[in-house]
Amino acid sequence: MARSLIDVLDLSLDEIDELIAVANDIIANPRKYSEVCHGKKLATLFFEPSTRTRLSFEAAMYELGGHVLSVSSGASSSAAKGESVADTAKTVSCYADIIAMRHPKEGAPYVASLNASIPVINAGDGGHNHPTQTLTDLLTIKREKGHFENLTVGFCGDLKFGRTVHSLISALSRYSGVRIVLISPDELKLPSYIKNDVLKKNGIPYKQTTDLLSVIPELDILYMTRVQKERFFNEEDYLRLKDSYILEPRKLETAKADLCIMHPLPRVNEISVAIDDDPRACYFKQVLNGKYIRMALIMKLLKEAGTI
Amino acid sequence: MNIDSIQSGVVIDHITAGKGRVIYELLHLDDLDCSVAMIMNASSHKMGKKDIIKIDSNIPVDVDVIGYVDPEATINIIQNGTLVEKRALQLPELLTNVIRCKNPRCITSVEQELTQVFKLTDRNKKIYRCIYCEAKAGK
Predict the structure, then answer these.
(1) Which residues of chain A have a CB within 8 Å of the CB of B111?
(2) Rounded CA separation B77/B56 (Å)
(3) What does the alpha-carbon distance between residue A194 and residue B75 come to, in Å, rounded to a whole number?
(4) Chain A within 8 Å of B109 (Cβ-Cβ)?
(5) Those residues with Cβ within 8 angstroms of residue A138's Cβ, 6 or more apart along the chain or in another chain
(6) Would you tell me which residues 100-129 of chain A have a C-beta closer than 8 angstroms to some C-beta of chain B?
(7) Is the pLDDT of residue B1 over 60?
């Protein structure tokens, strides 16, 4: 069974450092990597809608000189006829060299990895894991800050359901000196099992607040997420809270000059477009970094499988 | 109340009172042809009250099931009326096809032929998580 990536915690810190180093080298010397995957095929199996992640994987493979086979919705594949994830994985293993899979059901990419003879990359399984988003976030932090240690990282918005938040908090908890600030309405607080199993267990100092303005001066990183209307029990609460978590230029007046503002995207209105030109806005850099870290990951897994 | 001693079989003893029925169901003891006695709320010096299950046949019992439900229970193997083996239990690392994942978003909710596997993630708190979606097992 080839090595797959299902959860970012499957990677050691050394491996994450190595992926980040390779991604940085790709950014500096793209030509060096333009034929690394010549003749190899990536199958993107997306059983759920996606813009960024699927195109990012596909662009990554093309820039490595490889090819892409794509299923862009469950309705256009044999899954619509009731084919199991295991059978799909076995079938695609006959055509491709590596799989990137997004699936609405949690654990589906893991099932695929148990049955495929080629590496499987989890490109998002429901609200569960999205390891390449976390790698993207880590590369962005590394490029913007130069290090992970001793950073104060604020997470703002929907901290209850946001898988990118949970996953990045878990990844950051492995570095020393990290401090976490959790900014959300009471309805969307970080689940207690993450506070207990990740933050408290690893001795990570953290604080919770509902007030973004009061903590913004202390942040090195501000990771914004969308507060979704459907998460609230009543519209009154939503209307009361929604503007508190919209980032506008005036809210950045007391922020550090080198604050790094991140967002996994898509955004709706939680970051004003007026901030896009602020040098502290890093969310579109994140998108670009996502392609480079996926290039590094595809190469790593194909090398480990002996394919390249 | 008297329950006859068994000559050859298995006695699951020191079951926390109330958990005997769970073990009975998970071991599918109602499918057996032999005599099975379940004693509930028996007096115990050590435990106050306990449940006991006596199976009048030397069937292989799934120790993982019993260890998961009640790691304090003991398994006694009886042959020719004599205790020949006493097994202490511990929480098993993996539970395979013992319990089902209740997370409706889990892949096992739509692909029901998948092997149901739970992994022990916190021995002190006795927490098992589904290997697919990592949802916590609910006993």
Answers:
(1) 84-86, 111
(2) 11
(3) 37
(4) yes
(5) A16, A20, A148, A168, A171, A293
(6) 103-108, 110-111, 125-128
(7) no
Q: Would you call A251 helix, strand, or coil by DSSP?
A: helix
pLDDT digits over A177-196, tens only?
Answer: 999 999 998 888 999 989 99
Interface ipTM: 0.89
Q: How many CA atoms lie within 13 A of A234 on its CB side?
A: 3
Taking the C-alpha atoms of residue B6 and residue B28, their distance in angstroms, rounded to an integer, is 20
Contact B134 A128 (CB under 8 A): yes
How many residues would you count in chain A?
308
Q: Is B110 on the interface with A (CB under 8 A)?
A: yes
Cα separation, B92 vs B119, in Å, equals 8
- Are the C-beta atoms of A135 and A297 separated by less than 8 Å? yes
Q: Are residues B132 and A111, on separate chains, in Cβ contact within 8 Å?
A: yes
Q: Bridge-partner residues for A152, per DSSP?
A: A179
* Side-chain-facing half-sphere of A274: CA atoms under 13 Å: 8
Nearest to B73 by CA among B65, B123, B8: B65
Q: Does residue B139 have a pLDDT over 70?
A: no
Helices A131-145 and A283-304, packing angle to 10 deg: 120
Given a contact cutoff of 8 angstroms between Cβ atoms, the answer to whether A172 and A242 are in contact is no
| A229 three-class SS | helix
Tell me the C-alpha distance between A256 and A260, whole Å. Answer: 9
Q: Is the pTM above the cut of 0.80?
A: yes
- Nearest Cα neighbor of A231 from A242, A246, A243, A244 is A242
* Nearest of A137, A158, A152, A154 to residue A245 by alpha carbon: A158
